[in-house]
């Protein structure tokens, strides 16, 4: 009896996993708007109602897909050590890996930001721990530029760099950069990182 | 006869203007996805076919709406002189006016970036001159930090600051900032601007 129950739970988990994989494929090839309960059930050859036995709603599936996208980014960033010669070099390498991942996974990446936000503002995101793990990597790289006790400023710098990188990558994905001239995404990243770090170093000296 | 022709052209231009205004209202209240030729014709009490006598397609109307959005932003930025005491103060004021405009016109603003890009990459945007006029304002503010001959670096700085501001405002509009903690859009703007400018000043000294 316990064994049978475990098997049923395993089946359920295996089917949920197949849902998330299939949803990821649909989003990756056609974008979030192509994902419907009917489409998903059709591809998996199950009844539409099965979806709602396994998930509260379609958003729950998208959250799971977004989780795997963020795990993929984390893996791409951690694939090899960051260059150790300077904070700038480490941040540029980190940004380039981020941009490379975003370009290779454009629809999956956009799905992260197309989902409705979680309620009125201050609740946690479903994938918040994954975002925070990514920020922690940036904060780790920035550590030599801050004194003990300056964690809030370091956290703000990490978020500014991420927001800048987010702006650059969204403009690059939307093909908004090239027509505006003078800069590729990589040029902008270099200017973003180098000026920010030079600014932090200057603050340290003054 | 010439008078009658002119009247007809004026009527045509007046009707086009009403189209753009009505499309702007629909986008502002319900977002770009709510804009359809049928809806627009219904609101204006004209036949759907009339739209295609006046415009090549719906995109042409959206481009015109986007043009008025960018004009509105330019007006909001130029409403009063920027503070003259420092480059930082001018850039922060400029950014705050930008953020204020974006927050007040969120759907119109998002429509600017939701439209498909113009072909394969390097063609001009329909509203490119308006974007360049906005960059010119930022470049003007940055001028004291660059030597003659450094126009390319100045242009790159203006675009990095804009990309950063774009990233911050898109995250703020999507309510992605608050749950990630530590920073409001205004805090991030201040860190973005101050570190960038400090970095440029440090480069100047070295």
TrEMBL record, chains A, B:
Residues 91-193 form the HTH-type transcriptional regulator MT1864/Rv1816-like C-terminal domain. Gene3D superfamilies: Tetracycline Repressor, domain 2. It comes from Rhodobium orientis. InterPro entries: Homeodomain-like_sf (IPR009057), HTH-type_TetR-like_transc_reg (IPR050109), MT1864/Rv1816-like_C (IPR025996), Tet_transcr_reg_TetR-rel_C_sf (IPR036271). GO terms for molecular function: DNA-binding transcription factor activity; transcription cis-regulatory region binding. The keyword Cytoplasm does not apply. This is HTH-type transcriptional regulator MT1864/Rv1816-like C-terminal domain-containing protein. Keywords: DNA-binding, Transcription, Transcription regulation. SUPFAM superfamilies: Homeodomain-like, Tetracyclin repressor-like, C-terminal domain.
């Amino acid at each position: 009896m316990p064994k049978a129950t475990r098997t049923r739970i395993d089946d359920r988990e295996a089917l949920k996993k197949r849902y998330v994989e299939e949803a990821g494929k649909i989003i990756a090839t056609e974008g979030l708007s192509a994902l419907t309960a009917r489409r998903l059930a059709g591809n998996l050859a199950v009844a539409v109602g099965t979806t709602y036995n396994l998930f509260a709603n379609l958003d729950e599936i998208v959250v799971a897909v977004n989780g795997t996208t963020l795990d993929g980014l984390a893996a791409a960033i951690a694939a090899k050590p960051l260059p150790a010669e300077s904070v700038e070099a480490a941040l540029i390498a980190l940004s380039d890996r981020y941009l490379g991942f975003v370009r290779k996974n454009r629809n999956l990446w956009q799905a992260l930001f197309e989902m409705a936000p979680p309620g009125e503002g201050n609740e946690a995101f479903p994938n918040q721990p994954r975002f925070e793990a990514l920020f922690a990597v940036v904060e780790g790289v920035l550590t030599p530029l801050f004194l003990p006790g300056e964690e809030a400023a370091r956290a703000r710098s990490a978020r500014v760099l991420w927001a800048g990188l987010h702006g650059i990558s969204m403009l690059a994905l939307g093909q908004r950069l090239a027509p505006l001239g003078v800069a590729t995404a990589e040029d902008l990243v270099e200017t973003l990182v180098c000026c920010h770090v030079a600014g932090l170093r200057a603050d340290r000296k003054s």
